[in-house]
Design brief:
This protein is an alpha+beta fold and 453 residues long. 40% of the residues lie in helices and 13% in strands. The radius of gyration is 27 Å and the shape is elongated.
Amino acid sequence: MRRGTATIATTSSMKGRSQASVWAAVRSSPSGSGAALRARPRGRRLPRAAEGSRSRASPGTEGESRSRGIPSSFRCMRRPPMAPSLREAPPRGGGARTRPLAELTYRARRILYATVTEYISTGEPVGSRKLSKRYGINLSPATIRNVLADLEDLGYVQQPHTSAGRVPTERGFRVFVDALVQMREVTAEDRAAVLDRLQHLAPGTDVLHQAGELLSTLTGAAAVVTDPQPERESLAQLRFMPLDASRLLVVLVTRHGGVENRVVDLAGGVDPAELERVNNLIEELLQSDARSLVAVRDALLADIDAERGTIKQLREKARSMIDAAVEREEPAKVRIEGQGRLFDRPEFLDADKIRQYLRAFDDKERLLELLEQTLASGGVRVLIGSETRLEHVDDISLISSPFSGSGSAKGSLGVIGPTRMDYAKVVPLVGFTARVMSEILGDHDVDSEDEGE
């Protein structure tokens, strides 16, 4: 099975996603020694309870509180939908197994789905009797134990100690996300929370902070956000102001009220009259098609050879000043919102785990690298465990998505927390929030995008 990062399309494309193309042709291998993973499926439809029709059997339904200390977002977790090909047993005979689940029978996939789902809901090791009772798996506990033992041999689950049930491994979570679970649509309640919070902000409000706090509240994890870079963000104003004979203060004001100041050194200086002419020229360009710092620089370069005399000198001076401003670009900043909310989860009763996460959060360079990689993904990106390459912690997942700012600026936002995360809810929620951010910060229409869902 190939491991690595996964890029998952945002909600609009998730709805139409079918895992049939991944392993619809999966059939049982010839019978052998009777090991559970090689056993031929019987071809019968599982009881309706397995499809979630009996709400009483669904783990983590509203009002249920099996484990103290579990955040409310987990106590109210609905059982995530199964991938289409898990809802009914495949017919007997014919067909060859295909990756990524070539080594797993239909029976083993159903048990792995149930094990991961139950563990996400409760945070406790999962035993065979619980799977048999709660998930409508029409097998004896002894048979389920045999399947779990085979799943453990293949690295999908592990047993904390001999008397405990099983918990998913990183590999088990990866298969669950990639092929066993179907992402839910964003609930009406979460959709309303995102729209109400982000579309009705007062002028000058920090949109990125609000989006991060909201994602943390809705998911019970920490949120991570990177700012769109001003070099490519639409500007309302760009002015150069003298500080002394050789230094200028550059003031960048974005369309949405963000302000950044930069100090640049300019060899030879510039006299006040010439500086005013440069500012007037830049203002004219900002009112035309050049809306960002980079676009202004490109516009100055475009026709500079055709100019003569004073105008050419003015353009060259303006270009050199903007070049100096671009060189002073600060690296994108990573914001982390809701750490306290994350540490309220029961996994963090261990102080060592809190320290591990704090060290990971301090590795801003690596977090920024991960979020910048998201910009090229085109959708929601899920990294599990060692895929993050964060040195200080293994039990960690990052779910992130790019969003568009004004102009050609882009940023990323997502959630970070333990691998025991409600992926079926969080993945589409991150994607939807990113689209709303794009609508607010840029010229995008979330309603028109939602029509395709």
